[in-house]
Amino acid sequence: MTSPSLDSSPSYQPSLQAPTKQVRILQIIAIISLLGLIILGLIWELWLAPLKPGGSFLAIKVLPLCVPLAGLLKNRMYTFRWVSLLVWLYFIEGTVRGYSDPFPSRYFAWIETALCLILFTACALYVRVRLRNGKFLAAEQAKQEQPPLST
Description:
about 150 residues
């Protein structure tokens, strides 16, 4: 009798497995930090500390962050991979503005930097865990498909 999570049929695909608890937690952390970056970018540039009084056109910097949100929600590993590269642009901006901007904006820049580090770490660990789980599931599938040795 096989476990319900492992199917020995040839059409079995490890990517269609339900995500493990660890993968789910990393996905939630990534989504929360991405939403945090979007919200922070909007309120920072439109209300709390805009470059110009009344709001700044720099608020459009959050648009590229809205694109991967659907992929993260759908558990697409490719999205987690490229978000881990995209986030470095925001990390650079946060670091530069953290050192160069005046008082209120400086703190928002350091929050942006921290959110970027959290997002990168969550995405990198997510990919690592998913790949490791995929290799484990593939090895389990190979064990089940091997015919028994006859003597």
